[in-house]
Amino acid sequence: MRLSILLLLSVFHTYLPLNKTQGKLINITTAAITTDLQDDKFPAPVESVNRLFYLQRTANANTIIYELNNHNGLLDENDPLHVYWIRYAEKGQKEELSYIQRKFAYGVVTKKLPNDQYDVRFVSYKKFPLLLMKANDGKYHIFATVAQKQMMLDRIFVKIEGGSFWIPNVVYVELKGTDQATGREIIERFKP
Q: How many domains does the structure of the chain reveal?
């Protein structure tokens, strides 16, 4: 249990607001973001029909991809997500997660819900619910509820400065996605 909590620190850490007012999330528009993400210059994965979202960290350019697990065009109801690396820091190769990464850090657990929906939780932080469901476009997407708004998730970025492998110093976690109702881009940033 303690191991999964520590691994969580490098992925999501506890969500707290950036400002000193406790309990309030900060909604940052794209224009308000400083060049933090641009300064990192991480490659964006190639668009894919099955990709739901991806996760990047300041540790290196390696990227974790979360995509639909389709077989012959049908979603695998028992295992709807496939999670793997793109190792940009090496040769850009695709690589499966290791057992420890899958079971304690970046893997997910899913539970089928009514109406072709799935509850999706990171193994390292089960308190942060995601919802896999069909959007207005008739395709599956991952949704996160942040600041009482439902965001169609596209990217998670974790800014780490120092610390250790087991206890990194997480400066912030940023979620980027789209408001399905308005089509507006939403960026939510949390300081641990």
A: 1
